[in-house]
Design a protein that fits this description.
The chain is of the alpha+beta class and 314 residues long. Helices cover 25% and strands 27% of the residues. It folds into 2 domains: 120 residues, D-amino Acid Aminotransferase, Chain A, domain 1, CATH 3.30.470; 154 residues, D-amino Acid Aminotransferase, Chain A, domain 2 (Alpha-Beta Barrel), CATH 3.20.10.10. The chain contains 7 helices and 17 strands. Helix 2 crosses helix 3 and helix 5 crosses helix 7. The protein is globular, with a radius of gyration of 19 Å. Bound molecules: pyridoxal-5'-phosphate. Pyridoxal-5'-phosphate binds next to helix 5 and strand 14.
Length: 314
């Protein structure tokens, strides 16, 4: 899907025209992948636009910076405020929000310390990622021949641009073989996550998901699923998951900002359960969409309202 340009991008404290948000080809990030970023959704609710878990996403951005020794000139509050300001100014809802921190144009060489830190926040119209909205059909996926990053190589708790070279290999392999997505195993052969989603396995009325030690991103949606399941009295167990659990699961689903809650229909052409979204997936999904679409009470305080007067609904 092509990016639909908005009016403004937030850059180091100012709103700049969309077309002016540019970096030089010799910026450190272009050559050495030195960026961290976030992906956040703003939903259209009956009370107006609202950003899902803005503070938690922004906190993860700051934590990604900390892991990569990036000192930011902006605080958590300032970045949250900047995001709301941007969405208000661009008047686009629902939308996808992409904060990026990168090492810019400075000195040559791998050493990143002398390249300036630049912060950008962009937002633009965005719809569904995997599957179709609220569909019970689910997606067909494969286990990737690529593993996720080994723990002592690139830290997966950081949402770093460079991690997505690995994600691209997983995604491309899945696509060329006719699947929607690939599930990566970790370096020891245990289930890790999709190229851009966390994974949940339903087995005998319990939900299982790999712990952070299995090279997964600490997904904000993953955390939301855990909260919702607990509220529904469905046990959630974070434990090491062998690959074959994927084949004998009653239900499987992805979680992620882009994927939201996406049921999985088959893995390596083995049908999951009855080949249609199961009752636990549907129960969790119903609560999730209720909160984000503003039709259910926001009892976890996940939504940040955006004061936009005029919106474009996509
Ligand atoms: C590799 C990876 N895992 C998991 C997720 C899900 O994380 P979140 O729910 O915070 O979007 C993403 C998406 O950002 C991702 O890129």
């Amino acid at each position: 899907m092509a990016i639909k340009a908005s009016d403004f991008v937030w850059n180091n404290g100012h709103l700049v025209p969309w077309d002016d948000a540019k970096i030089h080809v010799m910026a450190h990030v272009v050559n050495y992948g030195s960026s961290v970023f976030e992906g956040i959704r703003c939903y259209q609710t009956p009370k107006g636009p609202a950003i899902f878990r803005l503070r938690d996403h922004t906190l993860r951005l700051l934590q990604s910076c900390k892991i990569y020794r990036i000192d930011l000139d902006f605080t958590l509050d300032e970045l949250c405020q900047a995001t709301v300001e941007l969405v208000t100014a661009n008047k686009v809802s629902p939308c996808y929000i992409r904060p990026i921190v990168l090492r810019g144009y400075g000195q040559v060489g791998v050493n990143p310390f002398n390249s300036p830190i630049e912060v950008y926040i962009a937002n633009y119209e965005w719809g569904k990622y995997l599957g179709s909205a609220d569909s019970d059909d689910g997606v067909d996926v494969c286990v990737s021949s690529w593993t996720r990053l080994a723990p002592n190589t690139m830290p997966t708790m950081a949402k770093a641009g460079a991690n997505y070279m690995n994600s691209q290999l997983i995604k491309m392999e899945a696509i060329v073989n006719g699947y929607s997505e690939g599930i990566a195993l970790d370096v020891n052969g245990y289930v890790s996550e999709g190229s851009g989603e966390n994974i949940f396995i339903v087995h005998k009325d319990r939900i299982y998901t790999p712990p952070l030690g299995n090279s997964v991103l600490p997904g904000i949606t993953r955390n939301s699923v855990i909260h919702i399941a607990q509220e529904l009295d469905i046990p959630v167990i974070e434990q090491i998951i062998p690959r074959e659990m994927l084949y004998i699961a009653d239900e499987l689903f992805f979680s992620g900002t882009a994927a939201e809650i996406t049921p999985i229909r088959s893995v390596d052409k083995i049908t999951v359960g009855h080949g249609i979204a199961g009752p636990i997936t549907k129960a969790v999904r119903r609560q999730f969409y209720g909160i984000v679409n503003g039709t259910a009470e926001d009892r976890f305080n996940w939504m940040t309202p955006v004061p936009v007067k005029q919106t474009v609904t996509v």
